[in-house]
Amino acid sequence: MNSEEVAKYLQDHPQFFEEHADLVSRMVIPHPYDGRTISITERQMLALRDKNRMLEGKMAELIGFGEENDAISEKMHRLSVALIAAGSFQAVAQTLNFHLRDDFAIPFFSLCLWQRPDGAAELPKFVDIDETSQAFIETLTEPYCGSSSGFETEVWFGAMAPQVRSQGLIALRNGGGSFGMLALGSENAQRFYAGMGTLYLARLGEMASAALARVPALASALDHRSWAGTGGLPLAD
Q1: Does the model's pTM come out above 0.85?
Q2: Cα separation of 9 and 186, whole Å?
């Protein structure tokens, strides 16, 4: 019999060791670490200890993920409450700026809209945003996370664009098509990386979209234009 046949036989005949209990006490196998021989019972205990350590490590990892998610959920809750209280475009923009910069520690943030908000003359000037970028945002089914390479990031990050090594782009929608985007940037290339979970970013986009859509400021259209701030929104008080 080869080893596979022996293993299958023992699996199919679990009563074998009951019928040959003395065999278990006499059999010795190599120690997994120091080369000496030990009994099957000792080897089983070592295997159980190793498995226990592995499970403890996984448990600690899961607890860490849970605590991290709790912290993010608390921050999202604070942001949602603040957005509910914001009654104007300026208030919504300032709320996003404060929470993304101070609560979420996102160093570069830009709010880009395809329409100029009414009563926003004190905001920085609108800048051209190309149709390719708008079309890309329109096709997003989930937030884009990855390198800023290949994007005209100076449009939404301005003078800070050379420092941005990773970015998250979130489409703003009100029912059908997009009416703008949130651009989040970081000097850390791994802050927003391809393949990362985007659940909270998607929720952020939904919250921001709802808050912006209910204020009366987004009335006058300015085709293919966008307002953008860098390093947070430099709004007037």
Answers
A1: no
A2: 59
